[in-house]
Amino acid sequence: MTKVRIPPTLRNEVGGERELIGEGDTVREVLQDLSGRYPALEAQLFDGGDLAAFVNVYVGGEDVRTLDGLETRLNGSSVILLPAMAGGC
Amino acid sequence: MATYRELLAQVKREIDEVGAAEARERVGEAIFVDVREREEWEEGIVPGAVHIPRGNLESRIEGLVPDRSREIVLYCSGGSRSAFAAKALQELGYENVTSLTGGFTDWKRNGFPIETPRSLSPDQRRRYSRHLLIPEVGEAGQERLLGGRVLLIGAGGLGSPASLYLAAAGVGTLGIVDADVVDDSNLQRQIVHSTETIGEAKVLSAKRTIEALNPDVEVKTYEERLTSENVERIFGEGWDVIVDGADNFPTRYLVNDASVWHGIPVVHGSIYRFEGQVTVFNPGEGPCYRCLFPTPPPPELAPSCAEGGVLGVLPGIVGSLQANEALKLVLGIGDSLQGRLLLLDALGTTIDEVAVQRDPACPVCGEHPTITEYVDYVEFCQGVRG
């Protein structure tokens, strides 16, 4: 059971939720679990079988690109999804 | 009861003294503390000396010299006040304290180098008194701020609080880049503007507010949108720090590339609805914006505040954090947000932090850069997902 923080720009895809609980041992499994329940989310997170380039995923405060990518094991850590935000307005 | 002369003689027996020639050898090694009064200090000092008037010595020394084993050379005009000062520091547990015999008068007579400290005016000492009391800032730090140059990209939500706090702090030169005019929908959060300046160029509205707040600050206005064509001219004017409060991705990537090539640190802030992000990109030292976000999101994932809204106070919080980072960078103190992205959620009132690492494959700041000149940033930001 993994907590996944949903950024404001992806909340429309998950019915407005700020945080979801996903099942799985790796980032890929958890995100696929969420994508199964929220198909609109899948279209934003994945590009083919890979993570979309503009979405950053953090496990235990570290960017999964510096860990094992989608295969990063969670071991109880929560997940933060984070696309860039432009606004300074 | 001892006379002054007897007391001085007794104190001198209990402390270590050093002559001018020997003290000169310690410049750069020991910390020189000038215990004279302000008027004496302003006329000339031992190069690099710090100033603590004798009356404030005991209360201020721990802030300036926390390490009690540090070598300290105290001096006054003739060597008497510094002798009593040395005795006081011994009693406070300082282990390596000497008093300069003959004082600054003898130092000058020997023809040793002196410098004239830049000093704050009486008005400035009052205005910045709360900074002067902080050991990490003090008079030297305030001088640095007054000589500091910070460029703000955007005079909007983030630029408003950032520019106001930097101005209030006495950052001597603020540049502001913004092409917009003040709109009434800005005033829910853009506190550098006012109802009276609706319709006026934002850079001029901001300049007026800032100069009314602090006449020490010179505001340089750039009433234009930052582009590949003007960025060299604007960045080339020499800035210590850039505060990025832009409202669109093309400008974010342009600011990044230009700052990497100019070697200027960027304090990044961005906001949307209740959430904010803050970090510092320091070229050559830490990651850049492209290391963090190599690819801009597609437009549907990157709504602006104009489309999605923003809580009015959020830019106040994020812009103030940016001002804090900028002030530390100018002062050269503390730990910056370099390598750390702060995630602020105003709705839950939480602050999280994630690590940002330098990407060796970064196309701009990596080991083998593939982007070495300005690109079409609008096209670059639209190019994602066709």
What report would you give on this structure?
The complex is a heterodimer of chains A (89) and B (386). Chain A is built from two helices and seven strands; from the N terminus they run ββααβββββ. Chain A is of the alpha+beta class and 89 residues long. Chain A has one domain (2-83): Ubiquitin-like (UB roll), CATH 3.10.20. In chain A, a hairpin with a 2-residue loop joins strand 3 (46-47) and strand 4. Chain B has helices spanning 4-14, 20-24, 38-42, 57-64, 81-91, 103-109, 122-127, 129-132, 138-146, 159-169, 202-213, 231-235, 249-262, 289-292, 305-308, 314-331, 377-382; strands at 16-18, 31-34, 50-51, 72-75, 97-100, 149-153, 173-177, 218-222, 241-244, 266-272, 275-281, 340-345, 350-355. Chain B starts with a helix and ends with a helix. Chains A and B meet through strand 5, strand 6 and strand 7 of A and strand 10, helix 15 and strand 13 of B.
What secondary-structure arrangement, pairings included, does this model have?
The complex is a heterodimer of chains A (89) and B (386).
Chain A: E1 2-5, E2 19-22, H1 27-37, H2 39-45, E3 46-47, E4 50-51, E5 55-59, E6 62-63, E7 79-83
Parallel strand pairs in A: 1-7
Antiparallel strand pairs in A: 1-2, 3-4, 5-6, 5-7
Helix pairs in contact in A: 1-2
Chain B: H1 4-14, E1 16-18, H2 20-24, E2 31-34, H3 38-42, E3 50-51, H4 57-64, E4 72-75, H5 81-91, E5 97-100, H6 103-109, H7 122-127, H8 129-132, H9 138-146, E6 149-153, H10 159-169, E7 173-177, H11 202-213, E8 218-222, H12 231-235, E9 241-244, H13 249-262, E10 266-272, E11 275-281, H14 289-292, H15 305-308, H16 314-331, E12 340-345, E13 350-355, H17 377-382
Parallel strand pairs in B: 1-5, 2-3, 2-4, 4-5, 6-7, 6-9, 7-8, 9-10
Antiparallel strand pairs in B: 10-11, 11-12, 12-13
CATH class of chain A: Alpha Beta
| Biggest sheet, spatial arrangement of strands of chain B | 8-7-6-9-10-11-12-13
Global morphology of chain A:
globular
Strand content of chain B: 15-25%
In DSSP terms, counting alpha (H) and pi (I) runs of 4 or more, how many helices of chain A? 2
> What's the average pLDDT of chain A?
93
